[in-house]
Design brief:
Elements (H helix, E strand, L loop, with lengths): L4 E5 L4 H12 L3 E6 L14 E3 L5 H10 L2 E6 L6 H6 L1 H21 L4 E7 L22 H20 L2 E7 L1 E3 L17 H10 L5 E4 L11 E2 L1 E3 H16 L5 E5 L5 E2 H12 L5 E4 L8 E2 L4 H7 L8 H14 L3
Helix pairs in contact: 1-7, 2-4, 4-5, 6-8, 6-10, 8-10
Bound molecules: uridine-5'-diphosphate-4-deoxy-4-fluoro-alpha-D-galactose.
Length: 327
């Protein structure tokens, strides 16, 4: 095994911190670089944390000079769809321009392996589901556009500079580590599962259902919820594959199963054993009715399959975290 350091940018965030734990479990040497604007210092316990921004070229140079970096995993991005519509500058600046900086440092220091957190938001409104990787990419909001742009940039860098990459297109990340030490904690919570669970802890008065007239079996939006530890495992597999010479590619990460908003509320009620106060609300702008993944390519190229296939198991880990959260 290559024993250089894996630089995890955004490793103090939700998906990054779970991946750092999985990397440490797999015996990898890890270094986290995070500006802590969204991430949490407490989430990084298994490796050193450098608090810096990837816009800071001097900080980047220092990291690449002082460490032998084998590969970079890049999780750091703003990811609020609504905010990206209202303030696209913030998104293009942070998600695209800072990534160019990071890639420049990688090129300067000869680091040739890159794993990028992409999103199902790059597909836009699906023409068919489950969505496979050949589905046209036509993002409908600036957040999705930033992820799509970076995918294009790394593909061009691959052709021109020999950068080897995997772009992992996450569907809806969910759940927490089963040991309860790390979980989801956002500056502003907008995600469905934590908002439902917060009605049980009293932090949230009620859960709003954004639209009940969609063209879906129960009228509410359908999403593919993938456990954060399954996402972390996929990164470990992607890293091993890349370092072993796998072709650069983009891969969906989802379970392939769709869960509607109403079904999610019922499943949370079942796991917790309480009723959630529910209210109907208008559709949220920019929400596609159904997003489910074909995960066949992930299995084919990475040998990856999700371990959490029952949504109640995913909710149970999120509920454990919600009750005992440390940050
Ligand atoms: N929802 C509600 N009520 C709420 C919150 C959400 O009904 O209070 C609904 C949403 O309308 C959506 C579903 O629950 O239909 C899931 O919403 P989330 O906000 O949990 O997740 P999204 O599907 O909007 O977002 C995810 C990722 C984003 C990514 C996006 C791509 O979290 O980073 O998918 O579409 F950009």
């Amino acid at each position: 095994m290559d024993n250089g350091t894996i630089l995890v940018v955004g490793g103090a965030g939700y998906i990054g911190s779970h991946t750092v734990r999985a990397l440490a479990d797999a015996g990898r040497r890890v270094l986290v670089l995070d500006n802590l604007s969204e991430g949490h210092r407490e989430a990084v316990t298994r490796c050193p944390l450098i608090t810096a921004d990837i816009h800071d070229c001097a900080a980047l140079n220092k990291v690449f000079t002082e460490h032998t970096i084998s590969a970079v995993m890049h999780f750091s991005a703003f990811a609020y769809v609504g905010e990206s519509v209202a303030n696209p500058q913030k998104y293009y600046h942070n998600n695209v321009s800072s990534t160019l900086n990071l890639l420049s440092a990688m090129l300067s220091y000869g680091v040739k392996y890159f794993i990028f957190s992409s999103s199902c938001a790059t597909y836009g409104n699906p023409q068919y589901t489950p969505i496979d990787e050949t589905h046209p990419q036509s993002p409908i909001n600036p957040y999705g556009a930033t992820k799509f742009m970076v995918e294009r940039i790394v593909a061009d860098y691959h052709n021109a500079y020999g950068l080897n990459y995997m772009c992992l297109r996450y569907f809806n990340a969910a759940g927490a580590h089963p040991d309860g030490a790390t979980g989801e904690s956002h500056r502003v919570e907008t995600h469905l599962i934590p908002l439902i669970l917060k009605t049980f802890t009293g932090e949230n008065q009620q859960i709003q259902i954004f639209g009940n007239d969609y063209d879906t079996p129960d009228g509410t939006c359908v999403r593919d919820y993938i456990h954060v530890c399954d996402l972390a495992d996929a990164h470990i597999a992607a890293l091993s594959a890349l370092l072993a010479g796998a072709e650069s590619c983009c891969v969906n990460l989802g379970t392939g199963k769709g869960v509607s908003v109403k079904k999610m509320i019922s499943a949370c009620e079942e796991v917790v054993g309480k009723k959630a106060p529910v209210v109907a609300a208008p559709r949220r702008a920019g929400d596609p009715s159904i997003l489910t993944a074909s995960n066949a390519l992930a299995f084919q190229t990475l040998g990856w399959k999700p371990r959490y296939t029952d949504i109640r198991e995913i909710i149970a880990t999120a509920w454990n975290w919600e009750q005992h959260r440390r940050y």
